[in-house]
């Protein structure tokens, strides 16, 4: 990519990765599970189901992702991220549809969510960020931030999309059931929108370039599928939101839904209108490009791997658990539910800015130091929310700080893995560390709720007898302490171990010596 901007050449890869992650396993099931609680309870409560039974799926899903992420990372190293993501988009879409098969059997319900975790693991950032990290060197942090922005955007829109289908009988096309129809139509989103874009644009540096690929000759009919799928998503979201605006006024959450609708039209429009026939990064003549780094087994033997893996469990717990509980925290402090919901939507805005600003900074400054500063921000916010009599102004500042920190977790993880372990086995190492991250993020919301409600920690309905008799003040203060303490080890990671530019210079020098 000599004499050319990384963004001018790599934007199709970045665009396809962003849409793929946004419609993947990480956001789609988590953002929409709340929509399905009322209809599932209506149908299955007479069979002995509780809300806890429905939310148990998240724990099973988490353990499935914990097991699947390292495996899919290793498969991506062997067969290439492109092949893994294309296959996994299909299996993920189908597994989302399979959730409609739930007939009230709790074992079947758990099995379907476990299947979802394995079938969709290839749509995690573990695979999609590998091509992005390889195409972008000088602007890797910024590129990773952009690639991960779409999780919040598509996740928020999917919630409105699913709610519209559930609440409108005209769309109850599967078994005359709203929730079954919604799961099937949610499964169509990655197939219709993400798959065509990834097929054309997602290419690692060792794949056949888009410039040389015959499939790019069929760009317009292939992308027409993505455009139609995106327009259907946007149309149904607008149909869901517009009556709410008429009833409650243009509140912030509704305004952001319109903004997000406009944003999701940008990626497919860019690929339709601009030239996507780009070649991967090129290096100077005489340079042999060999991706530097450690294998997964070599990484396991380093102390830095375990510092990152263990640190991200409490980090993901503290940051991830508060977000779905923000409304409960605010109402606990006397703020009305309507106002709490509006304030909670600010998290999405802060996540977007956190990813862009954080990505910009880690390209220019030492990433662990930036990570410490960014992740200390939610710790302070948790302490602020724990104080009695929190008002709307304080809550707004705290929520923005939480979202700002939450927006950079994936970015920092991906960036630091590339810098401390290299790109040789990037996906496999990322997958292994992501598994630890998934434990905290997946189990955190229910753990935080159990402690705050005074029940003590439960797991799959079993009372573990841990930390009973506490409230939100204790829960938030302890989470703030845990978060701050768990970020300190990042400061001991030291200098980067792998730098692509230094590696290129070394290889060039070796080539020149050999020639002499």
From TrEMBL:
Among Pfam families, the record links this protein to: MFS_1 (PF07690)
> Which positions fall inside the Major facilitator superfamily (MFS) profile domain?
15-497
Q: Which SUPFAM superfamilies match?
A: MFS general substrate transporter
Q: Which PROSITE patterns match?
A: MFS
Name by which UniProt lists this protein: MFS transporter
Per its UniProt record, what InterPro entries does this chain match? MFS, MFS_dom, MFS_trans_sf, Proton-linked_MCT
Keyword entries, A-Z: Membrane, Transmembrane, Transmembrane helix
Q: Which residues cross the membrane?
A: 12-34, 54-72, 84-102, 108-129, 141-162, 182-202, 222-242, 254-274, 305-323, 343-362, 369-386, 392-417, 429-452, 472-494
Q: Which Gene3D superfamilies match?
A: MFS general substrate transporter like domains (1.20.1250.20)
Q: Source organism lineage? A: Bacteria, Pseudomonadati, Pseudomonadota, Alphaproteobacteria, Hyphomonadales
What top-level branch of life does the organism fall under?
Bacteria
